[in-house]
């Protein structure tokens, strides 16, 4: 029960030794004596548990400050000795290889912010309302697929010597599409006016008929969008407001919180299995953006994507394998508030730029804001 100060100082000087520093809850074993060199100093076997814990903590702090690599260990504060024992073995093996090691507790997953009262929630300047429900925009009735596509195409009298990327037959030969036959001759060829990619008209009409039939067309080669692309997102509600907490990496501003809520229901004619029920797991889903100039820009574009039914879809979950369920639709969101352990949180310096690119791939840019106002 001698003074701990000499031992702590000694631990700091011997930080490169092979003995791993154990955390407070991992000191239940019998660590090797560090006081045997001098008889005047007590060995660890003479210290009680609290002194050992304090010594271990001091040694850990010295090692961490010196840049020694740390090994995260779960359940260090629990009653089970299994994980601390494995941590000790890991430390012994690393020290046997000449690597100093310090055992630390792993970072915690922080999905939600601290509790926020209603009085602390603020509306977002420049954005009307704080809630929006799904709207379903239909293509104008009376237009045939041929009439819709006509404004996006130019006829090609002399097709180039290449394949149609839809049916994979030569453009100089008739279309190889074998499904329901459109009312277009299979040997006609057209060029899209923006991107100049060439296809059989027969194939383009068939592709349009297999989609949403919403009056838009997306080039299958370069993904250029013609018209206004809409999706098949089922009915739901989107809420958005400001909360008085900062995201990691955005300490200079508050946070925009988005809450999506979609209930289970029955699939419509635009969905994979019309008439069959679909599930909606994990709702309401909370997502976060920094309340910065770029963060508000992303929110405005997400509202356009919501109105166009492009944020969610019905399909097969890539995480659970469940079919006929609501899934994300190629526009990534951040669902972790105070961590980034799963890759869906902050800090992430590239996220806002990445999501702007994903929105642009769906045909949603700043020009879309003016289009929606019109």
Automatic annotation (TrEMBL):
Organism listed in the record: Malurus elegans (Red-winged fairywren)
CDD domains given in the database record: Deltex_C
Domain RING-type: 164-223
Location, primary (coarse class): cytoplasm
EC id: 2.3.2.27
Family: Belongs to the Deltex family.
GO annotations of cellular component type: cytoplasm
Ranges annotated as biased composition (Low complexity): 16-40
EC class of the enzyme, as a word: transferase
Pathway given in the UniProt record: Protein modification; protein ubiquitination
Record protein name field: E3 ubiquitin-protein ligase
SMART domains linked: RING
